[in-house]
Design goal:
This protein has 257 residues and is α/β, with parallel strands linked by helices. The chain has 2 domains: 192 residues, Alpha-Beta Complex (2-enoyl-CoA Hydratase, Chain A, domain 1), CATH 3.90.226.10; 47 residues, Lyase 2-enoyl-coa Hydratase, Chain  A, domain 2, CATH 1.10.12. Helices cover 44% and strands 16% of the residues. The chain is built from 11 helices and 10 strands. The chain has a 6-stranded mixed sheet with strand order 1-2-3-5-7-10, with helices on both faces. The protein has a 4-stranded mixed sheet with strand order 4-6-8-9. The longest helix is centred in the N-terminal third of the chain and has 16 residues. It is globular, with a radius of gyration of 19 Å. Belongs to the enoyl-CoA hydratase/isomerase family. GO terms for molecular function: enoyl-CoA hydratase activity. It comes from Brevibacillus brevis (strain 47 / JCM 6285 / NBRC 100599).
């Protein structure tokens, strides 16, 4: 399928999706999100892809929603579009998504970044939810995911002022995993993605799901879920290969079975 607003590549088990509206700072319109989710789901089904990188360019990961699609729309128009339903499908992707972000990471761009499982940020990244300055609020998870990561007080400060924070401050609050020089952020993400791609795919996906269950379940329920997932992995061929390779002092060959 030919895409207009994203580009797609792969390398050593890593699928790479690049937002591609550089003239308007990768503003997120409806078509771009549709294309992005379509490709995420394709990569999730592709056995040759084990990890996904989502990135933009050095100037902007994504500067927010495309206001041209919203400025004349009524509340009923927006509701009928049900435009956020497609965002919910991102959370169903089973493979790890690594965000490689730089420059403007604002509004919908920040929400998209928070849908990634791990984030490598350039030191030039500027991250925030400025929707209040337009008379609205986040609608794709900004109030919910931001609060879960940075806490209520910091979330309220960011959301009620609309002021962004630096990559360094985002690292302090756990919004990103690493901050590196702008010339290195993509390669750092690719290096990490290739490292994870060498791990047993089933275990990677089950661990991802288990970690997110921790936020939804009481502790004992979460422990039960973890143990049942552990038992499930014991039945995999990759478990046999991993343990045998350990005993034979060789590198394992994980196949995802």
């Amino acid at each position: 399928m030919a895409y207009e607003y994203i580009s797609v590549a792969s390398e050593d088990g890593v699928g790479i999706i690049t937002l591609n509206r550089p003239k308007i700072l990768n503003a997120l319109n409806l078509q771009l999100i549709d294309e992005l989710v379509d490709q995420l789901e394709q990569m999730d089904r592709d056995p040759d892809i084990r990890v996904i990188i989502l990135t933009g360019n050095a100037r902007a990961f994504a500067a927010g929603a495309d206001i041209n699609e919203m400025v004349e729309a009524s509340a009923i128009d927006i509701m009928k579009r049900n435009q956020f339903a497609v965002w919910d499908r991102i959370s169903l992707i089973s493979k790890p998504i690594i965000g490689a972000v730089s420059g403007f990471v604002l509004g919908g761009g920040c929400e998209l970044m928070m849908n990634c499982d791990i984030v490598i940020a350039s030191e030039t990244a500027v991250i925030g939810q400025p929707e209040i300055k337009l008379g609205v609020m986040p609608g794709a998870g900004g109030t919910q995911r931001l609060t879960r990561v940075v806490g209520e007080r910091k979330a309220l400060e960011m959301l009620l002022t609309g002021e962004p924070i630096s990559a360094k401050e985002a690292l302090k609050y756990g919004l990103v995993n690493r901050v590196v020089p702008v010339e290195a952020y993509y390669q750092e993400a690719l290096k990490l993605a290739k490292q994870i791609a060498q791990q047993p795919p089933l275990a990677v996906q089950v661990i991802k799901k288990s970690v997110y269950k921790a936020g939804d379940l009481a502790l004992q329920e979460g422990m039960d879920y973890e143990r049942n997932s552990f038992y499930l992995l014991l039945a995999s061929e990759d478990r046999k290969e991993g343990m045998q390779a350990f005993l034979e002092k060789r590198k394992p060959r994980f196949m995802g079975h």
